[in-house]
Amino acid sequence: MPKPRPTADPNHTATWTKYKSGLCRTCHATCCTMPVEVGLDDLRHMELITPFEAETAAPKAIAQRLKQAGFIEHFNHSSAKFTLARRPNNDCVFLHPTTRLCTIYAQRPHVCRAHPHEGPRPGYCAYVEVKSEK
After folding, report:
1. Is the pTM of the predicted complex or chain greater than 0.85?
2. What residue ranges define each of the domains in the chain, with the CATH number in brackets?
3. Nearest to residue 86, comparing CAs of 36, 48, 130?
């Protein structure tokens, strides 16, 4: 019988698992519960704003519109970073609640595309195995 994997805490990188190819297939998408900060280029790539809006609108106005739409939860004026909205259970708003797959996978922001090779602990991820129903 295979040894069960330890459960990672997304907030404590010391509990994370060394990443290897294929690990995501059996994960609960734990990385999609962590806060995600994005910039204007990401918002454009995610198709939440147009290139024209990115060049002409004030970031504060963009933040207000996207917050009302439920796409972001916070805008940091000093860094000009937008924090993507999360549901009450901390899931990213773009994570499908049943399949636990990204609903904007092809347009996901850079930080998501680069994880786990970049981020809080490069080469590691907050792996939590999907519980199988019996």
Report:
1. yes
2. 1-34+90-134 (no CATH), 36-85 (1.10.10)
3. 36
